[in-house]
Write the structure tokens for this entry.
Amino acid sequence: MSPPVAPAGWSRWLVPPAALSVHLSIGQAYAWSVFKPPLESALGLSGTQSALPFQLGIVMLGLSAAFGGTLVERNGPRWAMTVALICFSSGFLLSALGAATEQYWLIVFGYGFVGGIGLGIGYISPVSTLIKWFPDRPGMATGIAIMGFGGGALIASPWSAQMLESFGSDSSGIALAFLVHGLSYAVFMTLGVLLVRVPRSPKPVEGAPSVLAGPQVSARSAVRTPQFWCLWVVLCMNVTAGIGILEKAAPMITDFFADTSTPVSVSAAAGFVALLSAANMAGRIGWSSTSDLIGRKNIYRVYLGVGAMMYALIALFGDSSKPVFILSALVILSFYGGGFATIPAYLKDLFGTYQVGAIHGRLLTAWSTAGVLGPLIVNWIADRQEEAGKHGASLYGLSFVIMIGLLVVGFVANELVRPVHVRHHIPAPSKEAVDVQRQQSESA
Amino acid sequence: MSSDSSQSPPSRRGLIAFAWVWVGAPLAYGLYELVQKATQLFTG
């Protein structure tokens, strides 16, 4: 399938909603927990078993983004969005069959394996195209799309819960809910497939920098550069620090203020988790857009440096002041979201637009690593501290010190980022070749 | 003037508005539900 070239007059403002239709859908993955209790009671599963479809889905997200990135670059965004639509929706349809026949392995395979491929391909599908359409504001453009991934859970969480309430929480109710999800997301994502276009010439916006300006590095060469691995460490440390709060947000705020005159109720803790989701989403679009103004390296200095300070504030004063605890956690979560959303633009600055989607896909293995590392650190330490007879805020003190250390490591890695050496650049195309390419795209 | 406008590409305003409403409406629903839940932090 050849990439769909935009006809004359095609507005670039049609591309972000195309991207959002995919990201708002696949962001449902973070609302999987809604299905856990009904699955556990209907199929007699343990908590660990009911988490399997989500865990496999996230693993497949990382793997398919890493290994499918080059295919996405070669076949274009419409192909990628079509694959994402088919896999993500089929995952739900297979899960519906699995729930109806009470074959749990089919839910794990459908949602986790097949749907997970849709997550990975869908996540990277619009990145390269958005950067090409918005060479003047790549941070904002990718921020809009990646904000959608955060927004997807906000939509799916209440929607899925209401559906289960209407259809019932037995196996046939769950099957019907999965079926409606699969069909609805297929229709919703179709907008992205139909609307997405690649720009017809390498210079879509008057006055904006050309997309072919600066160094261009292939995905194969990029993974051999120290810059790629520095950014890998930066992303991994930033995500680990965010997950450190996100993973145990509700019990954390309850434990912190359990022995004070103003303890936090269960419903207030749920409100705190919701507020963190809002900060995560706002950070994706807000901080990523800010990076277009102050530069990518500077914004990561803020994420990692100020993030470490926020952790220090919580560790030192968090249990004595609720506002300090809440505000610091919100800032950390906004940096967590911002880190995700800004990384494609950082990659574009260093490696150019040539294969930025494929490079982004490979870098997402840092996310998978952090997804294991963050919860492991916080949960393991909290369990050990509890066994040692500690309680309240002291359960988390050591975790926070480790998070500060990780953020400092990320800060140093960001400082080590330098322009990519010229030996990794692909040879610049001659003026004649660029003219021929432009003529071909205009006659398409 | 008329020949210029006949050669200019078609306006996509309607399509742009439709596309943004398509993705904006469910997002607004999600944000509304989020705000409802987040207020529990101050009232719960």
Summary: Chain B is about 80% helix and 0% strand. Chain B has a mean pLDDT of 81. Residues 13-38 of chain B form the longest helix (26 residues).
